[in-house]
From TrEMBL:
Residues 404-417, 426-441 have a biased composition (Low complexity). Pfam families: INTS15 (PF14964). Transmembrane segments: none annotated. PANTHER family: INTEGRATOR COMPLEX SUBUNIT 15. It comes from the Eukaryota. Signal peptide: none annotated. This is Integrator complex subunit 15. Residues 404-444 are annotated as: Disordered. InterPro entries: INTS15.
Length: 460
């Protein structure tokens, strides 16, 4: 395509960009049709994209080619139509990659600016092919740039235009893949370390609603990704579960801190209580964990793949320890209130660890837990999780041999049957205890809970 440059130079910026998109479409169609594996766009074509669509100057002495706001809007509409009309997904993905794959040069800033506007428009006008391409981009790109795109979308739909969040909400049904990647990106972006990095209320409400409608939504990328070990280390996590656990655990103390700061700054606005929202989110996350045993077994990954990693959990417990120290030292409210919020945060951490380990999302031992939780104050539930009967959950919860691809490698292939207790002679109405596998059929995914002296329920 390098030979068309001379024909593009005399054109105005919009006409040149439109013509190049047309030629790029034809070029990639021919590339795919040729059967070359892998199909790869050549360097000269990428340079044309940078010069005539991203307007990166090829010659320092040449005057910059820039679009005004109206021309840029027209270009975005042309791009939306181009992707919508192209029926082959392979061609669309290659074209999107040619336009927006980061090259590590000065044109990357222009790429990110144009990408944010294009994806925002695709959400507004329901251009699913672009959202699907953007989902792939989010999966393959460094997380620093993924969270930049997420921030643009949150600003556009949760901050700038009141009421526009309902438009963003609809991507759950139109492009679940993009929705999953978007949740992963915002869960990475907002770590609750400051007011600026705390998720907006509208965003929180939307994510809670999404998960209540379909808990499997956050697993879509994981379910559709071949795990070949080629996932870049710097990319987003396969699921947003780690980030969402962080939100739920830190929220009781982090949101209280931010509210206190706003009152100190003289703000008198009534802020809605976000406590029930985080309780609902916490419950949804636990429900997602309980879906995992069957899914991991189907993929042959039970006991081999941890969707929650120890390093982020260690960072979370460190952050929580600091928040707890700050709450103790700087609180201006009753000590009872501070203690209740602290215990709520610790309860949520304990429940997340307990249910994640029981369902194969977290592979660790009691010693690992003690190490990462060593700086945390005492909490009854956390203490029970750390010192209870659970050692390595991936082995304890391996299903029977006929249903598990890993049972032959596990030292525990089936659950031993508990001996039947004899009937007490003075109480003939007592029933002997049944064997372990059938004693609690309502909890098939986490049999270790049956031996605990407390019922499982999330903290509110």
């Amino acid at each position: 395509m390098g030979d068309i440059r001379q024909s593009l130079l005399p054109r105005d910026v919009l006409s040149a960009a439109k013509e190049l998109l047309y030629h790029l479409d034809i070029y990639i169609c021919n590339l795919v049709q040729s059967g070359r594996q892998p199909p790869q766009v050549d360097t000269k074509t990428l340079e044309l994209v940078e010069e005539f669509i991203l307007h990166a100057p090829k010659d320092r002495n040449a005057p910059p080619r820039r679009m005004n706001a109206l021309q840029e809007l027209q270009l975005l509409e042309i791009m939306c139509s181009c992707f919508q009309e192209q029926s082959r997904d392979t061609v669309r993905q290659l074209m999107f990659s040619a336009l927006f794959s980061l090259q590590g040069n000065q044109a990357d800033e222009s790429r990110m600016a144009l990408l944010g506007k294009l994806v925002s428009m695709a959400i507004a006008v329901g251009r699913v092919p672009i959202l699907e391409c953007a989902a792939t981009w989010l999966q393959r790109t460094h997380r620093v740039y993924c969270v930049r795109l997420a921030r643009v979308l949150v600003d556009d739909y949760c901050s700038l235009v009141p009421g526009s969040v309902s438009t963003l909400y609809n991507i759950q049904s139109s492009s679940p893949r993009f929705c999953c990647q978007f949740i992963t990106a915002v869960a990475t972006l907002y770590d609750l370390t400051s007011e600026e990095l705390t998720p907006p209320l509208e965003l929180l409400q939307m994510i809670v609603s999404w998960l209540q409608d379909d808990p499997r939504l956050v697993l879509i990328t994981f379910l559709n990704t071949p795990l070949s070990g080629s996932q870049p280390i710097s990319s987003l996590d396969l699921t947003p579960l780690g980030g969402l656990v962080r939100w739920c655990v830190k929220a009781p103390l982090a949101y209280r801190r931010d509210k206190k700061q706003s009152l100190t700054n003289g703000s008198s606005e009534c802020e809605p209580d976000v406590g029930p929202l985080f309780s609902a989110l916490h419950l949804s996350v636990l429900q997602v964990f309980m879906l995992l045993p069957n899914i991991l077994n189907e993929k042959g990954l039970f006991g081999r793949l941890a969707l929650l990693q120890m390093e982020p959990l260690a960072a979370l417990t460190s952050d929580l320890s600091r928040l707890l120290d700050q709450a103790d030292k700087h609180t201006h409210s009753s000590s009872t209130d501070t203690h209740a919020l602290s215990q709520l945060a610790l309860d949520r951490l304990a429940q997340a660890l307990q249910v994640a380990m029981a369902n194969g999302a977290l592979l660790c031992s009691r010693e690992d837990l003690r190490a990462i939780c060593s700086r945390l104050p005492h909490n009854n539930l956390l203490q029970l999780v750390m010192s209870g009967p659970v050692m390595y959950f991936n082995n304890i919860h391996t299903p029977p041999l006929a249903f598990s691809p890993h049972a032959s490698h596990s030292p525990i292939t089936t659950h031993p049957t508990h001996p039947t207790h004899p009937t007490h002679p003075t109480h003939p109405t007592h029933t002997p205890l049944a064997s372990h596998p059938s004693s609690h059929p309502q909890y098939p995914a986490q049999p270790f809970l049956s031996g605990m002296p407390f019922p499982f329920r999330p903290s509110h």
